[in-house]
Amino acid sequence: MALAYAPSIETTPVRIAPRYDHFIGGAWVPSSGGATFATVNPATEEELAQVAAGTAEDVGRAVAAAREAYEKHWRPMRPADRAKYVYRIARAITERSRELAVLETMDGGKPIKESRDFDVVQAAAHFFYYAGWSDKLRYALHGAGDPAPVGVVGSIIPWNFPLLMAAWKIAPAIACGNTIVLKPAETTPLTALLLAEICAEADLPPGVVNVVTGDGRTGAALVAHPDVNKIAFTGSTEVGKIIQKTVAGTRKRMTLELGGKAANIVFADAPLDQAVEGVVNGIYFNQGHVCCAGSRLLVQESVHDEVVEKLKARIETLRLGDPLDKNTDIGAINSSAQHAKIAELVESGVAEGAVLHQQSCALPERGWFHRASFFTGVSQSHRIAREEIFGPVLSIMTFRTADEAIEKANNTPYGLSAGVWTDKGAKSMYVAQRLQAGVVWCSTFNQFDPSSPFGGYRESGFGREGGVAGLRPYLTV
Ligand code: NAP
Ligand code: MG
Q: 183: part of which helix (H) or strand (E)?
C-alpha cells in the first residue's frame, strides 16, 4: 500500500529586498547606468528581486576598491590577523546557515536538503579550511620560502552551486592575502550578496571582497580589466575558451574550471544496490546541474538488464517538486533557458534512436521541472553521450572488459571526474589510474572535502581548487 505523502516545507523566514546594489569598497553601490535585472525563483517563476546590472564602469570601481584594499590593508596585515577575519566569515556562515540555505533554494531551485546539508556546510568548511592556512603559507609550497599574494583577483562563477562556488573562490584568495571582485551568475546572485553582507558584518576591511552583479558582459569586463592580476573562472568550456583568448598575451594568471561528461563505471562484481544509489546520486543530485555529474553510465554487459530494472524502480521513488519541501529529491531546473537546452538534448537522444525512460510523476503546474530520466541503447556517437546535458538525464552504455570501459570512459574531450564500482580493490586501482579525470571516486560519488583538490584535464580546464594545491594559483613564489 502506498503511504500518503505529507509535505514538510522549510519555513525559516528570509529577508529579500526588492532591489540589490553592488557591494563595492564595503558599501552598497547602484549600477552606474541605473539598470537592473530580475532574479526569479525557478520553482514558481516569480520575481524575487531586482539586481544591479554591472557596467564596465562598475567593474572599474570594484577593481579600484580591491586594489586600494590590497595595498593599504590586506597585504600589509599580519597573516594571523587576516586569518581571524576568514574564521569570522566561516562562523557567520554556520550561524546563518538556515537562512543561506533557504535563499539558495529559492533563487536557484535546488532541494532544501541539498542546500542545507551540502552547499552551506561545504561553503563554511572552505572558509574554515583556508583560514587555517593564512599564517602557514610558508609551508604550503615546499621549498618556496615565504610566498606572496598575487594581487587583485577577478572571479566569475556559475549558477549551479552559487554560494559554494563563491566560497571556493573567495576563501583561498583572501586567505593568501589577495583581494577579490566576484561576479555571480545572472540567475543566482542572492547568496553571493548575502555573503557580502556577512563579510561586512565580520568587519572585513572595505574592498577586500567586492561583488558586482550582472550578466556575461559584466564578466567579460572583469576579465578584460587591466588591473586584475588573476582570473578564476568556473563555467562552461565555451565561455572558458573566450576568456582564454582575452587573457592571452597579458600578464594575468588564470585558472579555468569547466564542463564535464563523467563516466560512472559499474562492474558486474559490484554490490549493485549500492552502485545504483551511487548512480542516482551521481546524476540526479542538484537536478544534474553538476560539472562532475556521472552523466555516462558504463555498465558491464552481464548486469546491464538488472541495473536498468533497479534504476527504473528507483527513479519512481524520487520525489520531484517544491524545492523548499524537505523531502524533495528533484527540485527545479535553474532557468527556462536551461530547461529548453535539456529538452532539446533529450529530443536528440530519441531522434538518434536511444530509448528514453523517465519517472512517471506529475510535474508542478508552475516552474521549470524535468523528470529524472535515463537513456538505454545509447551509442558513443549520440549527442547525449558526448555533450554536457547539465540536467537529470543519464546515458547508459555497456562494456565487456576493464580496458574497454577505460577506453570508452576516456573517449570524451572532457576530464573532470569519474566513478568506479567494483568489489575488487585491485580492479578499482587499475581502472582509476588509467582514467583521465581530475577526480576518480571508487565505490562512492560526489564526495567533497576542502582538503581535497578538484579540477580538470583537457577541456574541463586547468588549475586546482581545494587543498594545498588550491593555494598555488593565489600565491607568487
Ligand atoms: P557559463 O555560461 O559559462 O557562465 C559562467 C559565468 O560566466 C556566469 O557568471 C556568466 O554570466 C559568465 N559569463 C558568460 N559569458 C561570459 C564572458 N564572455 N566573459 C566572462 N564571463 C562570462 O556557464 P553556466 O551555464 O553558468 O554554468 C554551467 C557550466 O559551468 C557547465 O558547463 C558546468 O560544467 C560548469 N561548471 C564547472 C565547474 C567546475 O568546477 N569545473 C563547477 C560548476 C559548473 P551569466 O550568468 O550572465 O551567464
Ligand atoms: Mg534566480
A: strand 179-183
Domain presence at residue 164: yes
Residues 432-453 pLDDT 10s:
999 999 999 999 999 999 999 9
Cβ-based burial of 258 (10 A; exposed 0-12, middle 13-18, buried ≥19): buried
Rounded to the nearest 5 degrees, what angle is found at the Cα of 302, between the Cα atoms of 296 and 308?
50
Please give the Cα distance from 212 to 59 (Å, whole number).
Answer: 7
DSSP state of 114: H
Give the binding-site residues of ligand 1, using a 6 Å CB cut-off.
Answer: 156-160, 183, 185-186, 215-216, 219-220, 223, 234-236, 239, 242-243, 257-260, 291, 388, 390, 416, 456, 460-461
Helix extents (H) in 413-475: 425-434
C-alpha cell at 175: 586567505
Nearest by Cα to 261 from 353, 408, 397, 389: 389
Which among 326, 340, 327, 396 has a CA at the least distance from the CA of 370?
340
Distance 336 CA to ligand 2 centre (A): 11
Q: How far is it, in rounded angstroms, from Cα 354 to Cα 370?
A: 18
CA distances from 409 to 76, 119, 180, 416, 459 (A): 48, 28, 37, 11, 15
Residue 274 forms part of a structural domain:
yes
9 lies in a domain? no
Count of domains forming the chain: 2
- Assign residue 335 the CATH number of its domain: 3.40.309.10
Instruction: List the domain range (segments joined by +) for residue 61.
Output: 19-258+457-476
Do residues 209 and 273 both lie within one domain? no
CA of 31 to the centre of ligand 2 (A): 19
* Distance from Cα 111 to the centre of ligand 2, integer Å: 14
Is residue 74 within 8 A of residue 179, CB to CB? The reply is: yes
User: Cα-flanking dihedrals φ and ψ of residue 374, to 5°?
Assistant: -150, 155
Report the CATH number that the domain containing residue 83 is assigned in CATH: 3.40.605.10
Number of CB atoms found within 10 A of residue 282's CB: 27
- Residue 383: HSE in the Cβ half-sphere, 13 Å Cα cutoff: 15
Q: What is the pLDDT of residues 117-126, one digit of tens each?
A: 999 999 999 9
C-alpha cell at 427: 580492479
Per DSSP, the chain holds a count of helices (H) and strands (E) of: 15, 20
Residue ranges in the chain whose pLDDT is less than 50: 1-2
Catalytic residue among 114, 176, 199, 291: 291
